[in-house]
Design brief:
This protein is an alpha/beta fold. The chain has 12 helices and 13 strands. Strands 3-4-7-8-9-10-12-13 form an 8-stranded parallel barrel, surrounded by 4 helices.
């Protein structure tokens, strides 16, 4: 498969990025429905890792954003991921930002997206998770609707948490997308304290109601000063958050200046964010002292990259843009390296 993927990628890269995205997902779903996934992708790497009280089949997950609605869980799990994070999902369906909103920067092995939490709403996602046959670990990434004021954001997150709690293996609180106005302000000060308090209180209620404890993870941005990262780490410890995901996409364009699409608004992912996101992982690790696990995402394009994230203090890794550029072999290589 690894020697064929460059040809497949050439075809997909000849298409509009968002159309290629959907076509690729549909192809994975078709392979699964025809029972051809194992033939095409082989046997997933088995290297169990215990994190957040969960046993992950291997340490390499799919980051949120590829399957926003949970429509492709089975097809994606058959590719070999140790876990899959679906979403970001919001209480109500919303179209996201106008197209075009997804741009490749091949010279930098990067992608810019300003999707804007386009999704079919939490009720649809819940039904899709119920239908899935896969036994893979599923994280559900939750956010607020575009038209919900930041001061009311906790209500949206709470509603999503209530809806997905019984079906999720863990839930991610996305407060770091650059594509929803005001969202990143939730990473700081009283707004973050309030949001985490609301969700931890609701987690306790739901755990008692369902007799199931579902861990909460917080996903943060790479565009923060070290002192801000320290303050977040301290608050995560105080609020007893179960994990932190570092990081989301960056708004910086330093590494892609002058390249086509570099000035498009949105979040930049891929190789250019690797160093920045790894620095956040390292800084978090210094302040968390192993008390809260770190899931590292951002610019993983090789097994060495995955090993570097673990060396910086991560417990698990997630890939997205690397999967688009490198294909399924990247998952295998990383999972094998992290055994």
């Amino acid at each position: 498969m690894s020697f064929i993927y460059p040809l497949i990628r050439r075809f997909f890269f000849s298409l509009d990025a968002e159309k290629a995205h959907m076509l690729g997902l549909k192809a994975l779903k078709l392979l699964y429905s025809l029972k051809l996934s194992r033939l095409v992708f082989g046997v997933p790497v088995a290297a169990p890792k215990s994190v957040m009280g969960l046993t992950f089949p291997n340490s390499v997950g799919l980051a949120a954003g590829l399957d926003k609605n949970g429509d492709y869980i089975d097809g994606l799990s058959a590719v070999g991921f140790g876990f899959i994070e679906i979403g970001t999902v919001t209480p109500k369906p919303q179209p996201g930002n106008p197209q075009p909103r997804l741009f490749r920067i091949p010279e930098a092995q990067a992608i810019v997206n300003r999707m804007g939490f386009n999704n079919k709403g939490v009720a649809h996602l819940v039904e899709q998770v119920k239908k899935a046959n896969s036994e893979t670990i599923i994280g559900i990434n939750i956010g607020k609707n575009f038209d919900t004021p930041v001061e009311s954001a906790a209500d949206d997150y709470k509603k999503c948490l209530q809806c997905v709690y019984s079906l999720a293996d863990y839930v991610t609180i996305n407060i770091s997308s650059p594509n929803t106005p005001g969202l990143r302000t939730l990473q700081f000060g009283d707004e973050l304290k309030h949001l985490l308090q609301v969700l931890k209180t609701e987690q306790k209620v739901l755990a008692e109601d369902t007799n199931k404890y579902v861990p909460l993870a917080v996903k943060i941005a790479p565009d923060m000063e070290d002192n801000d990262i320290k303050l977040i780490a301290e608050l995560l410890l105080v609020k007893e958050i179960d994990a932190v995901i570092a990081t989301n996409t960056t708004v910086s364009r330093t590494a892609v200046q002058g390249l086509e699409h570099a000035e498009e608004q949105g979040g930049l992912s891929g190789v250019p964010v690797f160093e920045q996101s790894t620095h956040v992982v390292r800084t978090l690790a210094e302040h968390l002292n192993g008390q809260i696990p770190i899931i590292a995402a951002g610019g993983i394009f090789s097994a060495q990259d995955a090993e570097d994230k673990i060396a910086a203090g991560a417990d698990l890794v997630q890939i997205y843009t690397g999967f688009i550029y490198q294909g399924q072999q990247l998952i295998k290589d990383c999972a094998q390296a992290l055994k």
